[in-house]
Amino acid sequence: MTTLTIPDHLLALDARDPLAHKRGAFHLPRGVVYLDGNSLGALPRGVPERLARAAQTEWGEALIRSWTAGADAGQDWMALPDRVAAKIARLIGARPHEVAVGDSTSVNTFKVLVAALGVAQPGRRVILTDADNFPTDLYVAQGLNALLGGTLELRRVPADDIEAHLTEDVAALLLTQVDYRTGRKLDLEAITAQARAQGIVTVWDLAHSAGAFPVDLSGAGADFAVGCGYKFLNGGPGAPAFLYAAERHHAAAPVAISGWMGHADPFEMARDFTPAPGARRFVAGTPMVLSLSALDEALDVFADVDLDALRAKSLSLTDTFIDLMEPLAARFPLTLVTPREHARRGSQVSYRHPQAREVMTDLIQAGIIGDYRTPDILRFGFTPLYHSHADVWQAARGVQAVLEARA
Ligand SMILES: Cc1ncc(COP(=O)(O)O)c(C=O)c1O
Ligand SMILES: Nc1c(O)cccc1C(=O)C[C@H](N)C(=O)O
């Protein structure tokens, strides 16, 4: 990649960036500007050593004793999902016992949809969702409906029309806060309040929110949520996902996958399911110790991070990219699809381009790793923990070079 003269005002922003030191906590390959942390977060430097310890010492040496070793101090493998849950809880405005960690976001979406329908107003059968929601959310709702003999109605409307469709026949609202294609951010607080006023149970997919900016599920009065461990939380490929269940629902919400690890006392080996206290009841099977260890270590990078500073930096990075791309959008067939209003923007910037797939292939070849999403979206994700404004400059110059070469 060519060395470029970075404008002074961007260097000045980097010089006073309170999160600049966090970049050192990540392994970032040379010659690459990595703008896909909203699909797979970069590797935190502490993770390889932690994985080696989990494999060689905890598994290799201590063997099965690791399930209970250090239990008095809460350091046993058995409690690992709960320790990780507590770290995620701070990022999403939850209390530790309202978060369960394990399985994939897809499986957790199934669990919380069943839970949501179980506490919904009697007689209501409609699940309301964004017509362009991420496919897995739609597929899981479709699969659940098939399981229930087609007794539900999956009502899909454009995200902009959701508020007009919060009617008294809706049981549950299933929404992704930040759209994976456009980066549009929904007003979680306002929509949750309107839904609750109609007696609708809310289920939020925080895949592109958790770790990107502060979320306040408790403050908003949200009912249920899910999210990924491998995006902005940097837990690694296939990292365990999380789910959130507000405390007020713990007693009544059904546990769809009532496995032994969600039992109040797994080794009692009782014949009937007695749920563990809190959201732990949603941890169905044996915790994925190796991947939980990676996620646990990755979350430590957030320990001293001020989430408002994280949001401020994310907006500064995406503002900078939009500004730098503006002259290119005037010369080339690029259309910004991400909202300019801060309140409506996640931590990514997307453009339509008629040859988006080919342009992204060229960009990746040039070391600018973003994403292509059907049908014509160029997607650039910004991670405030490890990006600088200088990276943003390099990315925009890389886009310019690719577009000029193709013209
Ligand atoms: C909004 C959203 N939900 C869910 C998922 C993924 O779910 P899973 O972890 O089950 O692959 C993604 C990304 O893959 C996503 O963007
Ligand atoms: N989860 C993914 C995977 O297993 C392979 C490739 C990409 C992904 C993704 O995360 C896609 C992502 N949710 C998106 O927003 O497009």
TrEMBL record:
PANTHER family according to UniProt: KYNURENINASE
GO function terms (MF aspect): kynureninase activity; pyridoxal phosphate binding
Summary of the function given for this chain in its UniProt record: Catalyzes the cleavage of L-kynurenine (L-Kyn) and L-3-hydroxykynurenine (L-3OHKyn) into anthranilic acid (AA) and 3-hydroxyanthranilic acid (3-OHAA), respectively.
Listed Pfam families: KYNU_C
Cofactor: pyridoxal 5'-phosphate
GO biological process terms on file: anthranilate metabolic process; L-kynurenine catabolic process; L-tryptophan catabolic process to kynurenine; NAD+ biosynthetic process; quinolinate biosynthetic process
Modified residues (N6-(pyridoxal phosphate)lysine): 231
SUPFAM superfamilies, per the entry: PLP-dependent transferases (SSF53383)
EC number(s) per entry: 3.7.1.3
GO CC terms, sorted: cytoplasm
Name the record gives this protein: Kynureninase
Entry keywords, A to Z: Hydrolase, Pyridine nucleotide biosynthesis, Pyridoxal phosphate
Similarity-based family: Belongs to the kynureninase family.
Entries under InterPro entries matching the protein: Kynureninase, PyrdxlP-dep_Trfase, PyrdxlP-dep_Trfase_major, PyrdxlP-dep_Trfase_small
Chemical reaction(s) catalysed: L-kynurenine + H2O = anthranilate + L-alanine + H(+); 3-hydroxy-L-kynurenine + H2O = 3-hydroxyanthranilate + L-alanine + H(+)
Pathway: Cofactor biosynthesis; NAD(+) biosynthesis; quinolinate from L-kynurenine: step 2/3; Amino-acid degradation; L-kynurenine degradation; L-alanine and anthranilate from L-kynurenine: step 1/1
